[in-house]
Write a structure and sequence with these properties.
Elements: E1 28-29, E2 35-43, E3 46-54, H1 56-59, E4 63-65, E5 81-86, E6 89-95, E7 101-103, H2 112-115, H3 125-136, H4 154-160
Protein name: DNA-directed RNA polymerase
EC number: 2.7.7.6
Domain RNA polymerase Rpb2: 1-29
């Protein structure tokens, strides 16, 4: 699975497929060259703050709940069922007692470029692909101004770009 490792939106189609890939927002390369993605550990229906990075082969061994599951103030699941990935299956309702891990963020599956597109989940795939390609070609404004609509990821993208002076 490429979930949380390679961006499904920013990856090219046509003759460049497989030649260029964009790392997902929270993905990282381990010392062996494999891409890992983070998950929060779940113990007896309680989502802990412990974060564990896993490769794709370990994903298939666990039940992983989606990041948008409702939790109470103590980090416990509110509902008795959770939407989760089980092995190769996607989006299956499972009892919370069987959940091993939880995604750290809904943005975990997309690249930084895709996470900057407002209302991405409501865009058709082709439009999202065009949006990420346009962001890659963007040039800065002479006089910067705030965006009219944002996603909340703009600040981190600006800081990590290395083009912003911080005091």
């Amino acid at each position: 699975s490429h979930f949380g490792r390679m961006c499904p939106i920013e990856s090219p189609e046509g003759p460049n497929i497989g030649l260029i890939g964009s790392l997902a927002t929270f993905g990282r390369i381990n010392p062996f060259g494999f891409i890992e993605t983070p998950y929060r550990k779940v113990v007896n229906g309680h989502v802990t703050d412990e974060v564990e990075y896993m490769t794709a082969d370990r994903d298939a061994e666990h039940v992983i709940a989606q990041a948008n599951q409702e939790l109470d103030d103590n980090g416990n699941f509110v509902k008795k069922q959770a939407l989760a990935r089980v092995g190769e299956e996607e989006a299956v309702d499972v009892p919370v007692s069987s959940v091993d891990y939880m995604d750290v963020s809904p943005r975990q599956m997309v690249s930084v470029g895709a996470s900057l597109i407002p209302f991405l989940e409501h865009d058709e795939g082709h439009r999202a692909l065009m949006g990420t390609n346009m962001q890659r070609q963007a040039v800065p404004l002479i006089e910067s101004e705030r965006p009219l609509v944002g996603t909340g990821a703009e600040w981190r993208a600006a800081v990590d770009s290395g083009d912003v002076i911080l005091a």
